[in-house]
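job 3f2a | input accepted
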Amino acid sequence: MWILFRFELRHILRDITQVLIVAVTIPMLLAPFVSRSIQHVTHQAEEAQKSTFFVSIGGPKADQLRNLLPTIGRFRELPLHGSADESLKEGLIDCYVTVEENTDPGTGVTPRLPETPLVTIHYSSSRERSWRARDAIQTALMEHLKAIRNKYLQGLGQDPAKLYRLEPVNLASRQQEHLQTLSSLVPIVLIFVFFGTGSVTALDAIAGERERGSLATVLVSALSRTDIALAKWLTVVVVSLCFGILQFIGIYFSTQGMGGNGLAGLPATGWLVLTVFGLLLCLQVSAILLWISVRSNSFKQAQLLYMPALLVTAAMSAVSWMQSLPIASVVAFVPISGLALALRDALLGEYSPWLMVSAAASLGWTYITLQSVADSLELDGNERPHSDDPKEQMRVQLGQDIVWFYALVAAVMVVLPGNFPVFAGLRGQVLLNQGMMLCVPLLLLKFYRQPVARSIGWRSTSLQNWTICLLAAPLLHICANSVAIISSWLLPMSEDMVRQMTELLLPENTSQLELFLLIAVSPAICEEIAFRGCFLHALQRPVDRVFPSWRTCLLVGLGFGIFHFSLQRLLPTAVIGTILSFVALRTQSLWPCMLLHFVNNGLAVGLHSLHLDYAEFPAWTWIAAWALLLYLLKRLGNPAGVGRLSEESERNESMVKTRERVSQPSE
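job 3f2a | predicted structure (667 res):
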């Protein structure tokens, strides 16, 4: 293994010019543009943060401002049981405001308008919502004062801005501000660094050698598949670290204005933890790159898969932006995301045993990935066709490629809203996401020569199945909420995160009819075509035509859950997707899935105004709902003569095989 490792390193150093250009020069030149792009995305995110802020009001003149809150809107006063400072640090409130007599603290002289108090806004710039609340309350008060200026200023000639003296007080130090910024940026920056440097050797390590035929020489040697995978992985790790450190230094100096100098005050313990988790991230990214290479039949195909893999991995590391998401949750076990939270906490000086859990989970995922690489090493990457039917061969090929196409679609859905404000709100995201989920699957079916209507199950089903689905629809909603409660235990959410999620999904400034169209109708059509149509058609196996396999249902359900881009919603949406996939395979129709999807989302919209707390439901209701739902699902049946692959296609395939057997003796 070590001989192969040294050979791989010497092979890379032969073309040192290309390595320096690709791994050092280009990233150095692009570093300033990366920093500007991140700043641009941060400013654009302000539009998405137009939500209700929770504040606390105190002081002798608090009633004056308290009476204004219903007028200026967007602010709700939250009663406190402890000190305002502690509540602000814990994230229970976004800021607190003190309202006092408007006197000059130096002279004690009352200003010209004694009825106007002094408003002091206490906030923490280390929390995004806190400083956004400061800006919002300042703007709201100024707008309110301008609206009533004629009442107060008639004949006085005063400036409206002087009615209230607003003095924001930042409770976070400059060092805390820098580290807060770095804790969000470092994980995603490291992903781009390690992906860029590691790709120099990883993509060619297996895919390129397989294409040239040199991989066969190594595979027939005395080395085991595991030794080969480890040697190539160590090569990728060494190259990533050597050139990645140089890149990170360049990015460090180019991001001084974004908080880069915050590292100067990081203690030695923080540097040690940061280095350890940066190394773990490098190990995991190197394994992912090698997995991409082994799954590709050529260097060109590996290059095509590189970009969607990079964007999806970067999106997984973006959980570091969620300051309210604790590492003491199931996220610590998620690849890439767990390390991103660990890096965030290391920079903020928040050390806990969960850092060790994240490190152990990262090593486990790296081992699993490398084991998959070793198991996938073959002399020939091309598999023999499973059928003589050209359409069936193309369907199998679609099943091998569709994950990468959907990964690219997911990456586009994540990147575009951050760069184009039109896609940032609820309407923009629905337009983008549902539009892509409708168009991309149909284009894939056409490109792979699949009959569109038959592939997505665009057919009706029996009256019995329709009746069962109507009865099962409200049960599905109840069961999905029971899974959401379990998910909240595994992944604790702060009140801040719950508020943000609710306001994002169900904004207050949207009518009930529009919410039904955006959240219930369009997903029921577009998402079902994408997942229970094209995705299920590509991944299903022959056994699924006899009885749906839970393996296929779980794969489709997991993909459905991932596309909701929320760790908190991953488990409940994956369960819903699994059940809908089972319904699609049992009924061989897409229509019942659309009905179930519409009712589930429609109930969520309709019952939102009632503020139901599903956690208060007794346990027997959840058990009864699941029992009834599973019983109804078992009663679903496949109409006679209906199948995802038509009987005519199967007869043609059988006739071809028969003619071949008959013609063989004569030849």
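job 3f2a | The CA atoms of residues 64 and 412 lie 48 Å apart.
job 3f2a | closed
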